[in-house]
Amino acid sequence: MGRGKILLIVIIAGLMAALAAVMIGSSHTNQVVSPVGKTGGSSSSTRTVSYLTYQDPSGFRFDYPDSLRATAPATLADNLYGKVGLTSKQHAGRIEVIAQATTATDLDTWLAAQKIDPTKTPARQLKLADLTAEQFATSGATITVALDQGAVMIVKLEAKADPAYWITGYNKILTSFAFVRPDANQGNANNQTTVDNTGTSGAVEFEGEEVVQ
Hints:
Order of helices and strands: HEEEEEHEEEEHEE
CATH architecture: 3-Layer(aba) Sandwich
Strand content: 25-35%
CATH superfamily: Mog1/PsbP, alpha/beta/alpha sandwich
Radius of gyration: 33 Å
CATH class: Alpha Beta
C-alpha cells in the first residue's frame, strides 16, 4: 500500500473519531440542560379557596372566603336589623351586608329616597335568595338591593384598588345568600364574644360601642 493511501486512511479515521466525540458531547449537553421537575410547578402555588359561613341573628346567612374578616358592630341604630362588614389585611376594600328597616314598597321608591336616579344609573336584575334584586354602580361602589316586607337588604362592595380580588368574594356572598329563622337564643350582638374569625371558625368579631347611622 502506498504512503499516500496510508496517510489518507489516517486522516479519514481521525475525522471520524473527532465527529464521534462531537456527537457524544452534544448528546451529553442536551441531557444536562433538559428541564427537571418543571411539570406541575405552576400548580404548586395555586391556593384552594376555603369558605366560612356567617349567620346573622336577624335571620340571614352567607358564605365568604376565609381570607376575609367579618366584623359586626356591637350596637345597631334603631333602623337596622343587622350589619356586618368584611375586610382583608392584604387588599384595600370592603364589603358590607346590611338589613335595614324601610317604608318603601318598591325599589324605585327606595332608590329615590337615596337620591339615586335609576335612569342615570343602569341596573341589572338578579336574585338575592328568593328575592328580586337590582345591582348598580354608584360613587365607586357596587350595590345590590332587595326589598322584603318592610326591610331592605343591601350588599355593598367598595374596591377601587383591587376589584379582581374582591369580586370573587362579593359574588360568593350573593350566590350563597339565604334567609334563615332568626335565632332568639343569640339575642343582640352586645351579648356575643369577641372572636377573630380569620381561622377556621365562623365566629364574628364584634366591635365595641359602634353605632351605625
